[in-house]
Amino acid sequence: MSYWVYILQCGDGTLYTGTAADVDKRLKVHQSGRGAKYTRGRGPLTVVYREDCGDKSAALKREYAVKQLTRAEKLSLIAGHLSPPGQL
Fold it and tell me: What DSSP designation does 50 have?
């Protein structure tokens, strides 16, 4: 089963990092108010980054690494993810 690391951008501009087997399904849980305590009341929520990590263990390790990044580094990661190949 494939696991993903994702970054949500909250309505207040903050970023939330998490893992999920199905990012779109997890986003719906966050949007319903049943997700992480941090995201409650911070909508609207948008997935701005997702990275396939292969398995849950790899996803948890990558999530930890992403959480250690500064905000500027996370924004750079997101920008690189959104840029078309060869446009960095």
Answer: E
DSSP annotation of 44:
S
CB 85 within 8 A of CB 32: no
How many other β-carbons are positioned within 10 Å of the β-carbon of residue 77? 16
pTM for this predicted structure:
0.88
Residue 88 pLDDT class (50, 70, 90 cuts): very low
Cβ atoms < 10 Å from Cβ of 23: 20
**5 phi and psi, to 5 degrees?**
-105, 135
Q: How many residues make up the chain in this entry?
A: 88
